[in-house]
Structures are given as structure tokens and as C-alpha cells.
């Protein structure tokens, strides 16, 4: 017969087992871990007796006693004395089986044996050693007291993919893994892949747009020079690096890095799943599949296991993407240390609680930036990240040009081009300034250059809130990036790449970004032909086109000549005035109470007809990016708003009686004064609404 003693299987002859059973009748006290047969033949041998498939299995454990009175196999003698079968059945069912935890067909019943002793209590001179009720984990043999804690303990094992016992040599099937497909790339993920703090391989389906934007940026860089070395510093599942290698092929040499061993293992499995060869790092002591020395294959991905700062210090790359959990500021110095000239660094920041001014002290600690919650808080977050990037690049004698800055619900994405040399570094550092923000009307302006103090810094604000309101009305925010957030030529080429590779989710956003970069409405958006588009110049870098020779303008891996750099600086100064205006206004934030606003697209046309540059913005669906001051913005908004209770809902300009004619600007203060005067005059007679309707007739706007 097989019996268990201290979780060890022992073979005992039947005769000895019968003798022990007979001796047990004479000697009643038994040990809590007495030899009990494990009748569950389908379950592994080394599991605790409290883990069974059926209730009958627990009853069979008690049937080993030939006596009419049978003890409970999971309770000590002093807690539950031996009884008849019907009473034992009720005891096992109510006390042990009903409160069990189920997992893959097995029940982990509550156990009262001396597996988990409780701290003894001293009562007089006697020591009462009480035994605590507990559960035995089916996976790791841990003892858990509460049932809810046991359920959470099992769920954590499942989320980590640990569905097999540590004592079983046969590997369980990977039923917990599931395959996710994105952009023709398959990756294996765990059930808790969207919870970064509880999984080693984080995969967020909501970041698909982020991955598509980064892919388009890399594709544009791959069109400038080939091949390029690109790094995904935080691989997780390796989905991003696999998409790069699968679509761009020989144009890129992909390196996927992660410091977690489980993530590296999953990255290798995902490479094989997508029929990609794995090239292991030289420093990595692994006997896995490698590529021979000197062999270059477009289907080969290099996988490294080291800290992101280390791999960026050791090697040079043309394209680096940083996407850690939270802020990226801890890796900026390493990223700019060895990145090649005219290379690209992209970073995704997911610490939106601090960047969106919900945790202002964290933003001050990470980015050295003072921010508050404003109507343009998303653009404020993007400029704070770029300011930190600019300072990190300047410490390495490098300047930047911002190619793309996107701030959406879940992340802030910044893509910059690196310009080597102290001159570009100084020019970039000068664009980091403080912002003066009025807390009453939310007017804003960047502080003037220079180190001299002003007697009244409120004079820089276009509004007069400080003179009409008591106390201090403005706050100093920053330091922030004051330059452009977009590069039109780069965005247009990203749009072409998105169309070429069929990235449907990125195309609408890229069109909005192009319009925002040019500060124009979507109706005026035009796509240049490929020959005209490729003639655009970015940072003095002429893009390779079929009609121009790349060798005459761009030398791979070498610094540009002094003449080209000087010409670039002159062109940048000449084109500085054409940059899109900073920040935007929310049309709902500045709406007039009691008035119907015009439709957003029509309001954009009204502002454009007034002579201002205007466009929509991706930061806010109801935001308007314009170079018009806030006072003029409100004037135009008031002019084309209609009363809510005038009986007319048509959109058109408000006509004031008397001297103000159609097409003239209507001061908001004058409208409010006239309205208040008429209401006060006829308030007693109860005809205020009628007078207001007669004084403000509405007319349908001709479309």
C-alpha cells in the first residue's frame, strides 16, 4: 500500500497497515499527520490530502479505519472526535467542501491540521497550542488562511502563467497564453497583459495608434538612409520591434531589449512565431538559436537582456524608442549619449496623472516643471516633456528639432530629430522658456527672452485682468518648450507611409496634425505629389528623391559641413515666423451664457475671414488653434452667436439696434451692457424676455 507521511510517499505492506489500524483502537490519540492513503489516483502524488476532486475522496480517506466511528481526515482529534458515517458526511460537506476553492477540477478544502501552527497563548502556566484553519495552494504548496486571499493567490498564479505545480516535472499545456494579432504580427500574451504592474509582458491594445505613429516615423527615416539600426529599449512582448522587422525588412536592423528574463523568453518565442530568426547578444550566456558570425539576414532580430541605460551606453543607434512604465526622464541621458547625428529619438510617456496636472508635485519632481490644470493642459504636458528632452540633449552637446508631439488620453508621444553640435544645442536651449498664465480668463503668453527683471510682468499679458481684479491673477508655469510642435514635411511623409502600409487608424490623426502644423482648416488641406513632397527640407537635410542625388546632400553617419549648417540656421530663422501659433482655445470654455454658439467648422471660417490663422487641434476636439488674441476670439464668437430663447435657432451674426451694422465687430461688453439695461428697465413689468427678443432680432446666415 502507498501511504503519505510528511508529503513523502512510502510503501508499507498490508499486514503492517492492518496491525497499525488494530493498534489504533487501543491507542486513541493519533498524530495530525498520520499515514493516510491518497485515493485520488488522477492527481499528482505530492499534493496535500485536502486537495481532492470529489467529496467521496475525502470520505474514502476516513474509511481507512475499520471502526464504526470514523475521524475527520482534515481535523485534529481534539477538534472533531470520531463519529458515525452519516455525521462525518455532513461534517465534511458543510465544514470542508462548501468553503473550498476550486481550480481546474480540483477542490482545495479547508484544513485544520497542524500544518500552520498559530502563535501559542499563555494562560497561567499552561500553553494552549491552537491550530489555525488554512488552505493549501495546489500550485506552490503555500498555506493561506482566508478563502478570499486564497482565491486572489490562485488568480495571481494564473495571471503569471503559473498553472503547474513546482513539484511536477511534466510541463502543463500553455492554455493561459493567447495569441493577439496586430498589423500582420502575432504575439503571445498572458491573461493579465494589460496590467503592467502584475505582468512581465505588458501589452496594451489601446496603444495601437501609438505603435502605428512610431512605425511611420521609422519608415520615413528608413527612406532617408539604409540600413538603420533601431532599438526598442523596452520590448515586453516585442510587438513593436517585430512590426519594424516584418514590414521594413532589410531597411532596418532591429534590436529588442528588456531587462526581465521572462519578457526576453517571450520575445524569442514571438520571434519564432512570426518566423523570425533570433540573434542573441554576445554577453548573454544562452545556448538558444543563434545566427552565425557575419551572417546578415533581413529576417533576423537581435534580442538583448540588459538595462536600457546600459545598452544605449554601449552601442550607437539611428532610431531609439523609449516606452517605459511611467516617465522616460531616467533614460534620456543615455538615449542622447550615443544616438547618431540626424537620428531620431521617440519616447512615450504614460505618467499622465503628473503630466495632466493631477499630481503637480510629481511633475515638478520628474520634469522640474511647474504646471496647473488649464484648458490647454494636454499641450502643456507635451511642451513639458519636450523641455526635459531638450535639456537632456543639450547636456550631450546636441540640439533637437521636434518632428511630432501627440498627447491623447493614455499617453504623450514625442518624436525629435537629433542635431549634433553646440550651436544647435544652444539654439534649442533658448527655446525653453516660462509661460505667464492668467487664472481668470486663461490668457497666456511666453515670457520674453532675457535675464532682466521687469517691474510689472503682467504687462506682457494681452488681458487687463490684473487691473480690474483684486490680488494676483497670473501664475508662472514652466519651463516649457516654446518652439514648434510639428514638422509639416515630416508629417506629410508619415501620412504617405501610413497610406502605403494601410495603417487606417493613423491616417485621420496624421491629416489633422498636418492641418494643425500648417494652421489651416481641413478643407484647404492638399496632398502634394510625391515629387514635390520630397523636395521639402528639414533641418538642412534634403530628403532623397528620384530627381535628386542623396550623396550630394546627405552623407550617412557624418556631420554636415559648416556651410550647410549656417544655411540651415538662416533658413530656420526665416521660417520661424511661419510656425503654427502656440496653444489653443476651447470654444465651450469661452462660450457666452444664454447664447447658442455657431458650429465649430463655421466658427473656424468666421475667424479665417477675420484675417486670423486658424485650425483644429488633436489635443482637444473642441479646441481652436489660432493666432487671434483671446479678446478677438470672444468678439467673433459673440458676433456669430444667437440667443437661446429668441425663438430662432439659426446661426448668424447678432445685430444690435442702431449704429452697429452687419459685419462689424461687436464688443462683448457692449452687448452685455445693453442686455442688462433692458432687463433692468422692464423687470417689474415682466416683459424682459420680450424686450430682449425685440432688441436682438436674429437672421439666418447665408451659407
TrEMBL record:
Residues 137-157 form the C2H2-type domain. PROSITE patterns: SAM_MT_TRM1, ZINC_FINGER_C2H2_1. The keyword RNA-binding applies. This is tRNA (guanine(27)-N(2))-dimethyltransferase. GO terms for biological process: tRNA N2-guanine methylation. Belongs to the class I-like SAM-binding methyltransferase superfamily. Trm1 family. It catalyses: guanosine(27) in tRNA(Tyr) + 2 S-adenosyl-L-methionine = N(2)-dimethylguanosine(27) in tRNA(Tyr) + 2 S-adenosyl-L-homocysteine + 2 H(+). Residues 1-39 are annotated as: Disordered. Residues 11-33 have a biased composition (Basic and acidic residues). It comes from the Eukaryota. It is found in: Nucleus, Nucleolus. Pfam families: TRM. Its main location: nucleus. Keywords: Isopeptide bond, Metal-binding, Methyltransferase, Nucleus, Phosphoprotein, RNA-binding, S-adenosyl-L-methionine, Transferase, tRNA processing, tRNA-binding, Ubl conjugation, Zinc, Zinc-finger. One of its GO terms (cellular component) is nucleolus. InterPro entries: SAM-dependent_MTases_sf, Trm1, tRNA_met_Trm1_C, Znf_C2H2_type. One of its GO terms (molecular function) is zinc ion binding. It comes from Prunella himalayana.
